[in-house]
Each structure stands twice: as C-alpha cells, then as structure tokens.
Write a structure and sequence with these properties.
Aspartate Aminotransferase, domain 1; Aspartate Aminotransferase, domain 2; 363 residues; alpha/beta; homodimer; pyridoxal phosphate binding (chains A, B); three-stranded antiparallel β-sheet
Amino acid sequence: MVFKELLNFRLKDISYKRVLSSMCTVPHPLAVKAHIMFLETNLGDPGIFVGTWELERELIKMLGKLLHNEKAAGYICSGGTEANIQGIRAARNLKRAKKPNIVIPKSAHFSFEKIGDLLAVEIRRVGLDEEYRVDVGEVEKAIDENTVAIVGIAGTTELGQVDPIDELSKIAIEKDVPLHVDAAFGGLVLPFLERKIPFDFELEGVTSITLDPHKMGMATIPAGGILFRDESFLKLLEVETPYLTTKYQFTLTGTRPGTGVASSYAVLKGLGFEGMKRIVKKCMENTNYLVEKMGEIGYEPVIEPIMNVVAFKTERAEKIKEELYKRGWVISTIREPKAIRMVVMPHVTKEMIDEFVEELKKI
Amino acid sequence: MVFKELLNFRLKDISYKRVLSSMCTVPHPLAVKAHIMFLETNLGDPGIFVGTWELERELIKMLGKLLHNEKAAGYICSGGTEANIQGIRAARNLKRAKKPNIVIPKSAHFSFEKIGDLLAVEIRRVGLDEEYRVDVGEVEKAIDENTVAIVGIAGTTELGQVDPIDELSKIAIEKDVPLHVDAAFGGLVLPFLERKIPFDFELEGVTSITLDPHKMGMATIPAGGILFRDESFLKLLEVETPYLTTKYQFTLTGTRPGTGVASSYAVLKGLGFEGMKRIVKKCMENTNYLVEKMGEIGYEPVIEPIMNVVAFKTERAEKIKEELYKRGWVISTIREPKAIRMVVMPHVTKEMIDEFVEELKKI
C-alpha cells in the first residue's frame, strides 16, 4: 500500500532524460551496487564501522593522489556546501581574526552567502575579467588584516570557468592567507581533460579543496568531499566525542552514511583513470555537439566551454526556461550576461541533445 | 574485482548483533525498499524532483501532527547535528544579539560545542538536578540580554532523560527567548510510550524540535529532521538560489538525498501509530529485561530508564568497555557518574541481551 503511494510521488519527478540543468546525474551502476552493499553503515561511529572507515581513508588517499598530494587529509561529506563550510571554518579558526572576512569571486556558488551567515564571516565578492575569471588585482585589493581565506573556483556553476588559481596561490603565499579551491564540479573533470589547467595542491598556496564525487564522479548522493593539505587542518575542526568509540570528531555532521564512500570508490577504482577519462571525453564531445547544434539555430556561447558546462546568450533566457519547463525540459539561466545554461552530464546523449534542440526551435 | 575489495572492507565492520552503543539501528525492511526506489533523487532541486518534494511536505505534516502542530514547517536533513545547527541558527538570526549565547543543559550532546564554534555563539552549559534533568533555576539565572536560545533535551544521549520542557517553556515565554528541543532520539519514542511526558509544540514556548527518523524511526541514514513552529522560521535561514528551479533555499546543504524522506515515510506510514507503539513497547520490555539481568549480577541503573537508554554505575566503566570491545561487543560509557551505557534499539533482542550478559560475567 505505502509503496504504491511512494511510487506515485516518485513518478511525478522529472526524469534525467529531460534534465540539462543539474550538476548531478544518474548514479553509475557500479555506484548503485556499492551503495546497497553499504546501506547500513554509519561513519559517525568508526569504532563500529571499522572497515568502512578504512575504505574512506583509502578513498581520500586516492583523491589526494589525483590532486597531487598524497598527504591530503579529509572526508566524504553531504556535498559541496558542507565541504566549503569546513574549508572556510578551518581557515577562520586558523587565522582567528577579530572581524573575519573572505574574498571570493562574484562567480562563486550562492552557498557562500549561507556560509557567511553561518560562520559569521563577511563575504567580499570581487569582480571578474572578460573571460569571467576572478580579477586577481581586485582580489589583492580586497584582502586586509581580517581576511581569513581567499576562494578560487575550479569549474564555476554558471560557466564551468576556472579562476587563475596559480596566481591566487602566489597571492595566498605572499599574504599568508589560506586559499580554498571550490572544485566541487571541476575536481573530477580537470584531471581527466587533455588540456592541463593547474588548480590543485601542486600549487603551494592551496590549503583546501572541495571536490564532489556525487557530481562528475557519478557516485550516489550524498558524496561531497573536502580535502586539506595535511592533517593539521582537521585539528582546527575537532570536538571531543565522549560517547563514541573514537575520541574526537572533525566532521560537521555526526551520523554519516558510508554509502557515498563506497559508491565513489567503486566508480573511481572500477573505471580507473582511463575509464574516467573516456567519460569526461564523451561529455566534452557532447558539449561541443550542443554548441554546434545551438550555433545552427543562432545561439552563441558566452565563453568557449572549458568543461561540460555551457551558457548561450539570449535576452529571453527566463522566458525560454519557463517555456521549456512547461514542456517537461529543465535548463537553467544566468543573469550576467543574460543566458540559458546547460550542464552536459554523463546522462546527456547526442539523441537527447537533438530532441532538446528540436523542442527549443518550437519556442 | 572492486566489489570483492569492497566486501572485504565491509566485513571488517562490527555487526549490529554486537552493538549496544548506537542510537542508530538496522534500517527497517520498508525503509530499505523505499530507499532504493528513491536512490537517484535530489531534494536540492525541487523543480526536478517535484514528487519527492511533495512527499517531503507530506512527511513534515505527518511529523508535525505527531508533535501536536499541524502548521509545523521544516525538512529532512543529514542528522541531529544539522537539525540542531539550524534550530540555533534560526534563533540567533531572529534575536540578532551583539554577543549571542545559548543556555543548554550539561547533558546536551557534544555536537553543541561544534555548533558554538560554527555559529560563533557562546555555549552556557548549566547543571542538572538529582535525576539528571536540567536545573531550571540555573537556566533562569544563566539567561541574559544576549541569550538567543534555550535548549531542552528530550532523550539525553547518556541516560535517555527528559528535561522539564514544560518549565523551560514557561521561562522561554516569560523571557521571550526561543526554546529549541533536541528530541533527536526521544522524538520518535515519547509519542509512543504509555507514560505521557510533554516535550513538543503543545508547550507554547517550544519554537523548534530536532527529531531523527534514522534513530528510532528505523529509516536509512541520512534522515535527521528539524521542525519549526511555523514557516516564518524558515525565512531566517533562506538564501537566494539563482541557478535552481526554486528561488530560495532554507536548508543547510544544497544537494540533498530524497532517500531519507522516502524511508522515513515508508516506516511511519507503513507501520502506522500502532505499529510504532508495538516496536517502542518491545524496546522498553527489552530495556527492562536488561535491567533485570544486570541486576542479577550486581549492576544498578543510574536512573530508572524512561526510554530505551540505560546506564549502569561502575568505577571500572572504561576498562569494561575496552574488554568488551576486544571481544567484539560495543557499549559506551558515561563520565558522571561513571557508568557503562547501552541503547536498546530495535535490533536488540532478549537472546542478544543474554549473550551480552554472559560475556560481561566473564570479565
């Protein structure tokens, strides 16, 4: 009885076959199988879930290697917001400023407003250059004695753009301010691209990185990730845990599923570096195919896509989004410049793009 | 290949058949089935997951009714810590004090220290009475013009004790301070007990309640819950969400699984009020059975159990815990008074208690 009811709710959801707006995707079959195997697990209690905890350490090591730092320390969390909270929180606790502020690009995800409110940290958004990358000069000007972190984005939500993290890294070292890189999306795209764009721990100023396996890692939700340069940063987040099998806890949440760890590991290890590269390559091919098809009907991309996120200029962006939604298709929009925006996730095929462009023509 | 590896990690976890320390349990079969049905869902994007979002509204209504308030507003989150963060954050944002503080019992969960650090709120822990319930006189004394919230616990982690929420409610009204009730554990025990202990929205001063379906609701992890007296509190948590299908977001995390909503709903609706009552009754019977068996070998409970959490006085608590752990059994300890502590969750049977007591005798 209750399942018939649940199914009716579930059927009202829009299928991913019509979704071009989300940075999440259909979980990989390897991820689903691993998820079910770890359904009962709770990483909030590592003394009970000894094996799952070990698996998490293995996964963090794997991700650390991918990000050029075998000493990276961190954990798998609820998603990019928690990861960014913890990155900024560690920086704030390290610097202990009177009236803490952080300097972030205008293009940073809206969740940084949440983080500002939550952590009682002033958010200083600075402008972008012509290519929608943070203006490094403005970052430098915005920093003062109360700045506890600089944020760079590797894969902006709106355009998939990557800030000049190498230059931000130099400033971070010079000014002795932690540099947090939000690579929630790009962290599992950039390492697999032909074109090499530095964004990770190989840049010495980078102190923490957000990287979400439940986005391009095709893991099951929730599987966000926060990695720090070394273990010392975890100490800045620790509280004592009197009732548990361990003495301290550095995570934001207490009870914490092991499913995201298992599903991330299954995909990354199961597919391997080459397998991930193939998937990212396919996404880029499809992104270019979308640009081509959209070009045929007169749409121009805001920037040449760097990863599988692309926006097309149009004054009618909001109207188009609404019309498409009525017809069962989901895209999103950006405000500056006015544009419609799509994310070409692994569930997006050439056939889906064809159908989408046909629908768009009718509007 | 990767699954053999994953299985090896999973097999290192301790089975719930030997766990008496956790407030989590084996998810109910109804929960598992519902979880799998909603595996792909993401409540971070309600315009895509329209049906799952509706289901969540239904679940919140159901929980609201259970807590004597059909107008309750809230959402299903990662767990008790996030729920408590959001309860305190809303209160802090409502009161806007210069140097905010909150007044909480000594018995409050350790995660409140995390919350203090996170939200930059001073934590004032006040003493308990002889029954380990918060001393109401001390609460009153600790409140000043910077107090943004009072916290009461309905089901303390250590003893399952319930603070005099009715008295706290009176103080909250008198002093015009929000009262947050942490019923992460007790919220799905107290409504099903024979003995009626007031703790919820029927007490007028209560503004928010934490209640975790992944504890006594036997839902899959993650399924915490935060409920506010009415929708106005959600406004205090909102940020704008430019790229999503909705305009505002009041949740702490962005991407958010629908699995916890589905699994909570499946259990609560599937079993119904009477079914939940039967399960709670069984847990209480087993708790009393444990007290009886422990009594036979000379252990005395710290307080008569109110719910299915019980602690037994012993100076050797730490030693006993360690010895049992070596033998594959997990219990926990409390510090004041020194005691060993068990939670008699639905996975705990009389047979398991017999085996446990036999093992304990050997030490």
